[in-house]
Amino acid sequence: MKYGSEIIGVGSFVPPKVFTNFDLEKILDTTDEWIQQRTGIVERHWVDPETSNSDLGLEASLRAISNAGIDKKDIDMIIYATLTPDHEFPGTGCFLQAKLDVPEIAVLDIRQQCTGFIYALSIADKFILSGSHKNILIVGSEVHSKGLDLTPNGRNVSVLFGDGAGAVIVSRKELADPKKDSHVIATQLFADGAFAKELWIPAPGAACGKEQINHQMLEEGLQYPHMNGKTVFVHATKRMAECLVSVCKEANLNLADIDLFLFHQANLRINSKVAEMLSIPEGKVFNTIQNYGNTTAATIPLGMDDAIKAGVLKKGMLVASAAFGSGFTWGSTIFRY
Ligand code: ACO
Question: Could you tell me the pTM of the whole model?
Answer without folding.
Answer: 0.97
